[in-house]
Please model this.
Amino acid sequence: MDLSYKYKAYKHAMDFESIYDYSDHYKVRGNPTVWRYMSFYKFESLLKNKALFFAKPSTFVDPLEGSYSMWDIKEFMEDNEPLTSREYMRKIQEFSAVSCWHMNEYESAAMWDLYLDSNDGVAIKTDYKSLINSIEDLRYRVFSAKVQYIDFHNEMTSRNIFDTLFYKRKSFSYENELRLLIIASRIDEKLLEVIFEAQGLPYYEWEERMDELEEQSYNFSHNTGNLVACNLDTLIGEIYVSPKSSKAFVDEIRDMVKQYGLSHKKVVQSDLYKDYVY
Model:
């Protein structure tokens, strides 16, 4: 991220947080089942680092993701308002990162095909509340919402630069995505107050500690994103191994899971392509 944009990004983040807190648009109803499909190497990274990788918007494949729609641009022009450049939007969005999950009661054949580049891979099965509660990184408040799939020619996104990250084209609606968002400078003050009190931290030290965490929130672990600490036991309900994987690979996953202190009983091989008829 370009820290010369730090103050500008901070202002946009404050505006977004206000929108998020007072809008039902973002609320996830109930406690849906969610999945994360990944390669062997990404799964190994999750276990090794005890952290979820949040990717920067600059890694998105779709160039329209995180931008204004044609509808928005038309509205700007009709209102004679200055249109924010795409370059500026991307500079600001570099202060954020996202983690993408698939909402579905059942596993998805399409997701296996989309996210695996070989026969081998895994899918983390959990639920929304467990996912949110698993995150232990005190540097960030985690924003969560169902992605809105729209017609970029005839529907609006948002005028807030971070808010646009929750909109995608209808062509991607099959993903049924739950998106988690972190933004540098956004800490969860209410949660931190509860934690500090439980830790017995003197009240007069709270503000200084929060300032330290806010400053640390700008330190992303990678150029393409950021590792965000999580509790694996809370996060992982079950670990599905690809239906195309060999028994040897299933055993390798079980051994790896035990190595990192998790129960091997969480590991199951998908029977998606099993013939049940005869």
